[in-house]
């Protein structure tokens, strides 16, 4: 008899506590008209070797050092309940087969897909979603953003069971929200893998590989050398219409190559199969290199209509001399970004006007980036007391020079920054350049130890402001408030945006937030690109169109925009034979205008 309490405890840990059947009268929704996005020409098999900007410091997706560029590949294999169609934003079923909106404006019911499986073959159940809430709220994971979101936004996750045994969860928000489908669309955490969270979670799980529900799983890690993702041969979702003819290659091998110019050399030598080409220098000059001229390596330029990265200089306003907003405004007017676009970027890029560009109605069209204007820069600096210049033309005040360090991560950015440095000097700024590897730089920025950060934020489905601009993240780290912004009126706008119950109200708040961030002048918007460019050996094939409306490069695993390419083994034989014979093949530059904005 003494074993019964232990048995009951174990059962309660392993299984959700079902609250009976879900409420009656729910209006269940789903979507069945789903056309495949992949190409029936796609071939299964082969491998791709791609560059990785820097080797990650951990395989954890939360906690210290987890917020690296590499984490996107882990996140992309962590599927959510629903997925927004990449071309028209319709909600489609994924880990849930149906959903229903409750009348309270803050609860969504999800009928779970009984076919969904973790990498280790175990079923994804309601218990995993209940565990998500406990996991993300735990102080042991050391992730302030996760703890904040899953406490401030998500109130509860409840489990129900229908008469046929199918599991249903209800995800309830703290407050009604216009975007409740997006906010409640959470990802499960494998409860059987993590077990009971302990204080040493961060160290214990630093290099452990958790199971996931996506198409690929890490199968090999050689620290500092390579990371290998392998396709699951019996992936539970491979026959769903959305995923048909996608995620075709057996292996994706990532090799850390910090410098993009070095990676380009590796591509030309055949040590890499494919890479994204952002730099116009490499793109235009590369076409004259032998592997391109001989048709062995092809180029793809594809237009898109996707939210633009907030590609900007981010000023740490807690550091002198940038505590004065007039100095920040002056620096913005001292940045001759149009000169960089025309002289170095060959007119390929466009000036980014502000944050949250490309979000349709959510983008404030009235905001325009501050132009290069030395007269205005001079006016602001004189108002701030920086009236005197030394013999080198640098402004001085109270015995201190108007100096700051601009930190960046890629050597191909150096020439652009040297031009900005040169023109900023005309306004009296002494801008020192500091190149660090991406991991070092990101750590520096998150800990607020920089003066000016050269950075590009990725784009969520809807603009997100709290983590980057709310005062709760200022003056402390590590977190994403790189600018150390702490404005009570902006806090109120962000809170109103987060709590908006209608889309029109949320859009109005988004416009106000963008305006306040512009007025604060801690972000200097730089460039935007209406397309992405890839260079790839010709045996890497792409469908027509090459991606989706919101594709932004060679996405390997993303369920919405990734995994469209394949390896054509016959074409590989043709290319290798031609190389041995010194024979030329047709040079190819493909420009895909399917999703080019009018």
Question: What structural keywords apply?
Answer:
598 residues, alpha+beta, Dipeptide-binding Protein, domain 3, 5-stranded mixed sheet, 19 helices, 28% helix, globular, disordered N terminus
Give a structural overview.
This protein starts with a helix and ends in a 6-residue tail after the last strand. It is 28% helix and 20% strand. The model is unreliable at 1-14 (pLDDT under 50). The protein is built from 19 helices and 26 strands. With 598 residues, the protein is of the alpha+beta class. It is globular. The strands form eight sheets. The protein has a five-stranded mixed beta sheet with strand order 19-18-20-13-21, with helices on both faces. It has a four-stranded mixed beta sheet with strand order 1-10-9-8, with no helix packed on it. The protein has a four-stranded antiparallel beta sheet with strand order 4-5-7-6. α11 (325-333) packs antiparallel against α13 (374-383). Among the domains are: 216-304 and 530-592, Periplasmic binding protein-like II (D-Maltodextrin-Binding Protein, domain 2); 310-521, Dipeptide-binding Protein, Domain 3 (Dipeptide-binding Protein, domain 3, Roll), CATH 3.10.105.
